[in-house]
Design brief:
Elements (H helix, E strand, L loop, with lengths): L1 H26 L2 H9 L1 H12 L4
Helix pairs in contact: 1-2, 1-3, 2-3
């Protein structure tokens, strides 16, 4: 059971990071893209928030 949770967590983190990268590239938001690359949680929060329409 723990292995499934770890796999789901990894998939969520990777998918939200990719979402962050795609949105930043599409919007040409270079500073925010670099901030997400340097500080990973920024990218995860932004990617997840984008899924739910937070911004």
């Amino acid at each position: 059971m723990a292995a499934i949770i770890y796999i789901l967590l990894a998939l969520w983190l990777i998918a939200s990071w990719v979402t962050h990268v795609v949105i930043c590239l599409k919007a040409a938001s270079w500073g925010f893209l670099i901030a997400g690359a340097i500080f990973f949680p920024v990218a995860v929060v932004h990617g997840t928030g984008s899924w739910f329409g937070a911004w």
